[in-house]
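Risk register update: the risk that structure generation would not scale has been downgraded. Supporting records follow, first protein first.
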Amino acid sequence: MAGDRNEDGPKEGELLVCTVSNVKQNGAYVKLDAYEGLEGFIFIGEIASGWVKNIRGYVRDGQRVVCKVLRTKRRDRQTLDLSLKSVSEERKRDTLQAWKNDQRAIQLLKVLGEKVEWSEEQVSETEAELRSAYGSLYGAFEDAAGNPESLSDTGFEGDWIGVFVEMAVENIIPPFVEIRAVCEIQVGGPRGVEAIREALCAAETHADAENEVSVLCYYDGAPKYRVEIKAPDYKLAEKAWDDVSATITETIEKGEGTIIVTRE
């Protein structure tokens, strides 16, 4: 399943996770983890910057590396020219993490398929649809962990969605959940501006440092004010939103003002 999803093949400049399969004196052959049946060759001059005295001091059989595609067309049409030295440590780290996330998501979807009794074809079709909708399979799980309505909102249907969301919440930890809203507020009289300021300041008191919940209010140009809430999970974010929206609404209405709240 993982090896069949990239039908167009690697692109020049793309970063690939590879496994070293055969180290030679003049370079190293690697298998492309995401492209079944394809391999790459790292010429010794692309192993590291400077003179490489002993290539085995840099790569070894079975080692997982991140390479940049230099050229995709060779005589055998199966082997790509790759570079190891062109990949910075930061990009290597990010690419490996993304690859690990993807492998984890593939396993989760496989388990889901077993739970809902899907065929291999159904699992593959759903994987392709999720990748198309979210950009990555892990992204689909991550979104579902942060927002249980994400799949339905995106147009997916079926009883499997509940199982997917449950698995996402149990296995995926999103970096944070963000809720944004625009409040159109109008308060007449000499204390109008002060009343709005009090309402927004009161809303920000619902921030919870202990649980890593932040609440910030911004002026977007009268009569619009923006509220942004960040929290480590969906439940904390929604609770904060309920408290914030209630506080702003009550404060404005007590000052005989009007408010229209729109979630983005």
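Supporting record for the second protein:
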Amino acid sequence: MAVIAVVILLALIAAAWLIAREHRRRQSLRLRRRFGPEYERVVSERGDRSQAEAELLAREKRVERLKLRALSAEDSAKFGQAWQRLQTRFVDDPRGVVVEADTLVRDLMIKRGYPMADFENRAADISVDYPTVVEAYRSARAIAVRSQRGEAGTEELRKAVVFYRTLFDELLEVPHPRQASTHTEAVHT
């Protein structure tokens, strides 16, 4: 009788282990699909898949608690017009336009309901709903920081504006024909 109880207990432990392993596998797959390249970046940054996945799950929970909202048609039009005005000034003031683009993206994020903590927290929050463009946001911000130190040339500044535009379009929810991977299009002035 004791042998049967031990065998049943071992079978239950094995079954629980298999179920837990399958749950972790499905969770990893879901996170990998949802976050795309951001998943790999966080895993690489953390050096541990479990820690990275815990961070991504925490991001999801944090963003679920936010009161994100869509823009009214009026607000959407105002932001779109502001972007168009910004782009027309690029040739005359590329550094100033990058600063304006950063500010306009921040204003749009605020209007949509994102908290304005430090940059890394903003990028983490954006990665939950916009995982394919968060790297463009990071790239734009890195160029903007180099620009403040006088270390970014005009071509880099142009790229920063294009990167900001990529996130701007997503946040504005403006449909566009170009592919999400096309981040190097020219800034039209």
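Residues 2-65 form one domain. On this basis the risk owner (M.S.) recommends closing the item.
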